[in-house]
Specification:
Elements lengths: L4 H10 L6 E7 H9 L2 H4 L4 E8 L1 H4 L2 H13 L2 E6 L17 H6 L3 E5 L2 H10 L4 E8 L1 H12 L6 E7 L3 H9 L7 E5 H7 L5 H7 L3 E4 L3 H17 L4 E3 L11 H10 E8 L3 E10 L8 H4 L20 H5 L31 H7 L9 H7 L2
Parallel strand pairs: 1-2, 1-7, 3-4, 3-5, 5-6, 7-8, 8-9
Antiparallel strand pairs: 10-11
Helix pairs in contact: 1-12, 2-16, 8-13
Length: 375
């Protein structure tokens, strides 16, 4: 029987923690649930919850967004993308479109979509035009893209792929020697697709307690309790606190589609740099649907640099769990959801946007004030 959030909250307070413990929650959906449910103000003071690199919009390379903007402006195409991507800014002169939304205002035929099914419909409805699917995301949105291509799509549908795997970013943090967290809450939906085994390396290689959680307060609190008990008892393992959805081996149909359609490659993460084996690319069998092969190149290699965030934006540090959103120099001042400067304020899964939506508006350091505001 699933225990209630109240039960797990009581168990957390019974632990009598003697020192501060930093728990990273990888998933942007976790951060949204934690903030909107006010969990930071309810849990013991010794528990520090650190937002992690679980926002695909936030880490989508600037050069990919720039390329999508240029394709939409200079080619006779319909460009479609998941809704959040339309507002992600790139570094460009004010006289030029800085987002896909601005490129649409400048005449580009750019349309937001929610699922790959919509992309296929648009391609079928416009057989005389090329439809470019700017597909950015992690495993949970990339698997449906792979399934779409595996099912044979219209010849006029091309994919501009900017997909990433989640676990290599955590591996990079751990390999750095300064991960900034003592325990990990792994993402439930990614584990549903790829399998919980993907996170076993955190325990085996780094001896860090790990628990997989869903998005309800009860499963998140259960995961917190699990990793804290592991720390207290000195017995570290991978715990599945989302068993009703996450099963050993993951979703075989989804992973089979990914293996059939895509290769795993080294990939650039915005503001972070290249992370080995962290991206997807289309296999040669699907070259006819690869926008980078079928269209003129608008890639700008000068944009491939580590410091890709706009001037003053600390989004990369927020993504890596090295700063809290309110510690960014621009948070709530120059950067708000109405006029976002960095991608962390654009996406519903970006930590800055989540904290703002949860009512925290002050730009100042200090985790305790953030706890009260997001509670």
């Amino acid at each position: 029987m699933t225990q209630s959030a109240e039960y797990w909250l009581g168990k957390l307070h019974e632990l009598k923690l003697k020192q501060r413990v930093r728990i990273m929650n990888v998933c942007g959906g976790h951060e949204r649930s934690i903030s909107l449910a006010g969990l930071r103000s309810a849990i013991p003071d010794a528990i520090e919850l650190v937002p992690g690199p679980g926002c695909p919009v936030c880490i989508c390379p600037e050069e990919d967004v720039y390329e999508a903007i240029q394709i939409a402006l200079h080619e006779d195409v319909i460009l479609v993308a998941f809704g959040d991507m339309l507002r992600v800014p790139v570094n460009a002169p004010k006289r030029e479109p800085r987002t896909l939304e601005q490129a649409r205002a400048a005449g580009g035929d750019i349309r937001p979509i929610a699922t790959p099914t919509e992309v296929v419909r648009i391609a079928n409805e416009n057989p005389d035009r090329r439809v470019i699917f700017f597909a950015a995301g992690f495993e949970t949105t990339t698997a449906p893209v792979a399934a779409m291509l595996a099912e044979k799509v219209p010849a006029n549908l091309l994919v501009l792929l900017s997909a990433r795997l989640t676990w290599p970013a955590v591996a990079m943090l751990l390999d750095s020697g300064e991960p900034g967290f003592d325990a990990l809450i792994a993402p439930g939906h990614v584990s549903t697709v790829m399998g919980p085994e993907e996170w076993q390396f955190v325990v085996d290689k780094h001896d860090i307690p790990t628990a997989i959680a869903g998005f309800r307060p009860d499963t998140l609190l259960a995961a917190m309790y699990s990793v804290l008990r592991q720390l207290q008892e000195g017995r570290h393992f991978l715990d599945n606190c989302y068993p009703e959805v996450v099963r050993p081996g993951g979703n075989k149909t989804a992973t089979d589609c990914l293996r059939k359609v895509m290769d795993v490659t080294d990939a650039n993460w915005r503001g972070i740099g290249v992370i080995p084996n962290s991206g997807f690319s289309l296999k040669s069998d699907y070259a006819q649907h690869n926008a980078r092969l079928e269209l003129p190149s608008y890639a700008d290699d000068s944009r491939k640099r580590v410091g890709q965030m706009p001037p003053g934006c600390d989004c990369a540090s927020v993504v890596l769990g090295k700063k809290y959103p309110n510690q960014c120099r621009l948070y709530g001042l120059a950067c708000t959801p109405r006029k976002p400067i960095g991608p962390c304020m654009v996406s519903d899964e970006g930590a800055c946007r989540i904290w703002w939506a949860s009512g925290y508006r002050d730009n100042e350091s200090g985790y305790n004030k953030a706890r009260r505001a997001t509670g």
